[in-house]
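[audit] Reproducing an earlier prediction to check determinism. Same input, same settings, fresh worker. If the tokens differ from the archived copy the diff job will pick it up downstream; this log only records the rerun itself.
[audit] input (166 residues):
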Amino acid sequence: MARQKPHKTQMVVKEVGGENALGHCSGLHKTLYGSFLQSLPIGEIVDAIFTPHKKEKTPPQLGYWYAVILPFSVLELLKLGHNEIPDFTIDGEPVQTNEGTVDLMYKVKLAKYQVLELKRDKPSKGILEKGNMTVDEMSELIEFAIKWLREKLQVAPQPPDPELRS
């Protein structure tokens, strides 16, 4: 039997709490989802998962990370004579202290902390990439870095300035 050509039908409706799920979409998203659903062949079964939008990290968070946390961390490690990051290796090899490796160290140690200390089944999303972080995940990384600096180096970075605007 030949496959039927997709043809336009009325909008496929999925009930969510008694409301049309596409009713929660706006503008372009509603148009794109609607076009996609209308293009499906009759009888095609698809799963659509609608999740709450997660707020992306903010420019002030990234500014604080790159302008304060990372430079401060590197400076303090080097002041203490750590040209290589203590207790951190990649493939068994010591890692030079610089902003890129300190950034990676914090993300790796946060993932381990989430499993060992917070008793999560797994890190929230493995080793997080800042490009994909939500505002909450970036906050968790910043808080973890500050805690690590206090516990391991007995120092604390300058707190963020809420009045500072970019």
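[audit] rerun output stored. Observation attached for the diff report: The chain has two domains: 1-51, 59-153.
[audit] end
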